[in-house]
Write a structure and sequence with these properties.
Distance between the termini: 24 Å
Oligomer: single chain
Radius of gyration: 20 Å
């Protein structure tokens, strides 16, 4: 069982990363029929929703695209910002989806924002107590580590509806505004689905690791 477990937590994230990179690479080389750059796509959708105060800026890196609610900034990797590809259109629309969520105070986005600072602290600290608990056979330390780890796991789980909803909004926008043609919809969905797999993999690994630690804790308690 442990072999199967380790294969899952090792292979699933690697597969998800390979999938998103290969899919993105493929469709970043396919020009959109409307010849709109990612920056133009983002700006049009934002303006349609009255989000003129949200900036669209280029950022370095590949697949480094993100939305920053603190600065109200949609940051697109340079390739997506300047070029007119199907991948760029899909990614830009997805990030704008987060900006729309922010405007509408989307429940899961608000929850994730509140969990983020807590998860950043507790997730790192949790493994100190987990390791002490396992090596010292101390169920108390292990339970404390599990408790601290919960915030990080919850963050990963809550991220799923946030990302899926942003992708759904993205597809609705690019179709409604005529940014992509009918025969480009499938390609755009492939890009968004591949990206979503990375979040699914991260959540699955987090939940599996939490379950493993709970089983170890249960075993320690039964031995006491």
């Amino acid at each position: 069982m442990y072999i199967v477990y380790f294969l899952i937590i090792l292979i699933l994230p690697i597969y998800a990363q390979m999938k998103v990179k290969s899919t993105y690479k493929k469709f970043s080389q396919v020009q959109s029929s409307k010849h709109m750059t990612g920056a133009q796509v983002a700006r049009q959708i934002l303006d349609t929703h009255g989000l003129s105060d949200v900036r669209v800026v280029p950022t370095q890196g590949v697949l480094s695209d993100h939305y920053n609610p603190a600065t109200k900034t949609v940051a697109l990797s340079e390739k997506n910002y300047y070029e007119a590809s199907i991948a760029g259109v899909a990614v830009a629309a997805h990030e704008v989806g987060h900006a729309i969520q922010h405007k509408e105070a989307y429940t899961f986005l608000n929850l994730r924002s509140k969990l983020a600072p807590v998860a950043n602290i507790t997730s790192n600290a949790s493994w100190i107590f987990v390791m002490i608990g396992i090596f010292a056979s101390s169920s108390g330390f292990l339970l404390l580590g599990i408790g601290l780890l919960l915030a990080g796991v919850l963050f990963q789980v809550v991220t799923l509806p946030v990302e899926f909803d942003a992708s759904k909004r993205a597809m609705n926008e690019v179709i409604t505004l005529g940014i992509i043609s009918n025969n480009e919809e499938r390609a755009a969905k492939k890009v968004l689905n591949a990206a979503a797999m990375t979040y699914v993999a991260a959540a699955a690994v987090a939940v599996l690791e939490l379950a493993r630690l709970i089983l170890i804790y249960t075993g320690m308690r039964s031995d006491d």
